[in-house]
């Protein structure tokens, strides 16, 4: 059974999980076998503090907007998020940031960390830097590189960023899976070639009727070729 993958993104009040900043939006899109399952989780979260103007300018979420959305505090949804993530491979762009905030919020509630939930983490930022050294590796830059339409991305919202990241991740890894398919086909062919083969071929001798039929056929060839039957010269010479 294929492992669940979750394309994940968060939005926060700032950059520092250890200095009082809080999570304000969570989005996760589930994928198995490189196909989105439709099982997703998207939540707005009240940070229980003010929203800095510079943060709101990035994601468009003010405290008023969150209150209009009746956004719960993290303590009300933390268990739901943890259960959704448990045991999955998390696909995150700049994973250290999002994992740091999730772990901070989980620990405030006494919940297990991402690692303790049995999750593995794939950082697409690190992947991009390895694939394209010296090139821009932001999500915007990767969307441009892989021709992913980001025209609907007005703000850095967690849900739209997950949708874009999902397409980017599939594009980034398409070659790996094509290569894996080729290896699988080669392995299957090799397995067929390794099947035990008989050490000899069984020789079936003709019976008298079959020999007589064969000689009659050669007689016909000899008559139609004016005695130049290719199957009888040596026999004729041997009998001379």
TrEMBL record:
InterPro entries: DnaQ (IPR006054), DnaQ_proteo (IPR006309), Ribonucl_H (IPR013520), RNaseH-like_sf (IPR012337), RNaseH_sf (IPR036397). It catalyses: DNA(n) + a 2'-deoxyribonucleoside 5'-triphosphate = DNA(n+1) + diphosphate. Its cofactor is Mn(2+); Mg(2+). SUPFAM superfamilies: Ribonuclease H-like. Keywords: DNA replication, DNA-directed DNA polymerase, Exonuclease, Hydrolase, Magnesium, Manganese, Metal-binding, Nuclease, Nucleotidyltransferase, Transferase. DNA polymerase III contains a core (composed of alpha, epsilon and theta chains) that associates with a tau subunit. This core dimerizes to form the POLIII' complex. PolIII' associates with the gamma complex (composed of gamma, delta, delta', psi and chi chains) and with the beta chain to form the complete DNA polymerase III complex. This is DNA polymerase III subunit epsilon.
